[in-house]
Amino acid sequence: MNRSSRQGATVASIRKAIQQGLDRPESPAPSVSLSSRTANTAPDLFEQANVNFTEKKWLWVPHEKEGYIAGYVVSEDGNDMVTVHLMTGRDVAVNINVTERVNPPKFEKVEDMADLGYLNEASVMHNLKQRYASNMIYTYSGLFLVAVNPYYNLQIYGSDYVAAYKNKKRTEVPPHIFSIADAAFHDMLHSKENQSILITGESGAGKTENTKKVIQFLTAIAGDHKTAAALTATGCSLEQQILSANPILESFGNAQTIRNNNSSRFGKFIRIEFNFAGQIAGANIEWYLFEKPRVTNQSKQERNYHVFYQFMKGADKSVKDRLLIDKGPEGYTFTRKCRQTIQGVDDRAEFDTLVAAMATTGFKTEEQNDLFRVLAAILHMGNMQFQATRNDEAVLREQVAAEKLCHVLGIQLSDFTRAVLRPSIKAGRDWVTQSRTLQQVLLSVEALARSMYERMFGALVSRINSAMSRPDGKSTFIGVLDIAGFEILEVNSFEQLCINYTNERLQQFFNRTMFVLEQEEYTREGIEWNFIDFGMDLQPTIDLIDRTKPIGVMSCLDEECVMPKATDKTFTEKLHGLWANKSDKYEAPRFAMGFTIKHYASQVEYSTEGWLEKNKDPLNENVTRLLGNSSEPFIAQLYSDYADGQSGTPGGGNDVS
Question: What residues are annotated to the active site?
């Protein structure tokens, strides 16, 4: 592809704007206007100290709170001990072997940290910190781009920035996510091979936002914006549909967490497909690791999925009346015990954005209402109240919420209550009914709510993929992997282990692949080098989690789930017997019921409370059979694998308590 002759804003103006955190230029000859954050760049290390670098020996000294503090050597005291005058004004005696060298002033705020004369942790962190303080959130580190989340909107992603980074070599423009996307696009065109961009980091690092910027850039530079043939049946272009998929996925798949107001609670691999001419020819989304437990349980500092609040606050009254929704989030169990609002976010406006995005993607009004029907059903499900009899059998305390639920789901109340409270199970050739305890019923209802939401989410993604699919003309693709970030919460449970294990495996693959490529480059250049398999560093932790001999955490959990009298406590004790004092990656806490694993990113303590039920997540097949035969087509479709042509539970059974 030839480079565009018009670049929009000049490269110099873009560089200046990015470095100073300015509003994006609105014309090829922009006027400078300051953003809300100060445009003054952070002073470098030696300006702060008001000393000449060459006159002193500078060192980074470890510090418990700050990480590292710079200082210069005052005296060498023998036995590897030195006295260092710190930037804070104190003199400290320290062993020189625990210090790191400070880079000369010419390396302050360097764009590529691979260029640092002294490449050490302290210098890397200092460089990122100084650039961040100057509103330069992107920094290269060799093959990789490091992004530091500013937690506010920087105006560096407009159309002029797209034009400035289009057809530019990495060395010609400042570090930016657009540069990574442009390089992937040109590598794809040149080599005729598929490309992938991996976006990873801990929760709240900004992965989802950077994923959106990659897609924005690719749709801008490779879209067919001119021909009528490029328009879909909705009158919108394929590129518009691809961009509209984001607000839909964010509404149904994102939530407020302790660390992030818009955290993706699932991982996704997005393929942007191109034809031989380099124009976008389709897109596809694969999803995994969806956080089902959030549907029924959230901490007080978090929220359920955004769409629940958007729907209850923003939907038309006629829609809510039809689905029997007559309260706000505070009136429903699954949204009541957590935060109701997000500072600076208008859920009503977000609902309007969601509906507009669904219309652009081609969702008919009936299809939108089908999704809202599932939301309403889950809300009603959470409001059902049960109580235990003297015989410890569960009964329905009142029928209002259950009646609403059955109306919305298109099933009979009598069939539903019988399926929930006294389900039929097959014993040999006969069907027998079995009374359920209060705890069993509550767990069953929650499992049903989680299952229904996950199935709806899968159907939603399939519908989006159908809208973005084009049968012909596909040649290559650029994949963007937005993986659920490594998580360390106040209480870490089964979900966090699954997420962190996935990150561990991905990091191993990433290390092995990227550093093998780097070492092959050394070989081609004739550099003497002993080959190192960097992926093996993570293998002990991976074995601890997924090995079968000796059994790891996952295998042990599966094994305990089929044992008749197993509990979370017996599972934990069995793990301790298998791994405590036998692996340096595993620790048994002194008091809490759980275990600690040393991951590549950090050490994480996991609580094992509720793990057996979470791993089973049992569905009541009597209820799912009812749903598979629902009078509402979308509900029946979600549970079509349970449909058997029968309405209700099998009859003719014997009662068994």
Answer: 203-204, 208, 260, 263-264, 485, 487
